[in-house]
What we know:
By secondary structure, the protein is mainly alpha-helical. It is 66% helix and 2% strand.
Amino acid sequence: MKRNKHMRFVKRQxxxxxxxxxxxxxxFSSKKPSRLHMDCRxxxxxxxxxxxxxxxxxxxIEGEPTETELKEAWQKIYLEYLTLMNDNSFNHVFELTTQIxxxxxxxxxxxxxxxxxxKGYWKEGVEMLNGIGIPIVINEGDPIFPKIxxxxxxxxxxxxxxxxKEKELExxxxxxxxxxxxxxxxxxxxxxxxxxxxxxxxxxxxxxQYCKIIKRIELEYVNSQLQNA
Length: 229
C-alpha cells in the first residue's frame, strides 16, 4: 500500500498538461508514436482554427498525442509564423516557449527517476536530480519514500510554473488574435487572389506561402510609394 501511495505523483502526471512518461524498460513500440503537423506547411484554415479557437487536435496526422504534445506542436508553428511575418512579439513568445519546454523536460526526467527509485537505489538518478536543481541526498539503504516526497515537492512547483507560463503565452496569442481578427486574414486572401490573378482559398494555401506572398505584396507597395514620392 505504501508503494502505491507514493506513486500517486507519477499517475497524476498522466492526466495533467505535462508530458506523459513511458516507464524505463517498457516496450516503446507498444505505444505508437503520434505524428503531428509542426510547421507552416499546414493550410491557413487549420492555422486559423488553432489561433482563434485553440483547436489543436486539427494538427494530428495520426496517433493519440498528449495535450502537451499538441501545444508544443502549435507553439512551433506559431513561432515560425511570427518569424515569417517579422512580428515584433517573436522574442517574448520564443522565450516563454523555450522555458515551458525546458521545464516540461525536467518534469519528465523527474518522473522517470522517481519510478526507478521506487524499485531500488540509483546513484546516477540522484546525481541527475542534483544536476537539475534538486539538492537531495540519498544514500543506499535510506528510507526512500520520504525522499520521494521531497522530490515531488520540487516537481509540483515546476508544474505550477509551467501552468503560469502557458497562461501567459496563451494570453499573448489571444490578444494578438483579437487585435488582428480572423476577418483580416480573409481580406488578405482576397488581396492575394487579386495579386496572383486566381482565387486562393484558406483550405488550399500553406501558411508559409501565405506569409511569403503577403510580405511580397507589402514590399511592392512600399516600393511603389517610394517611386511616386
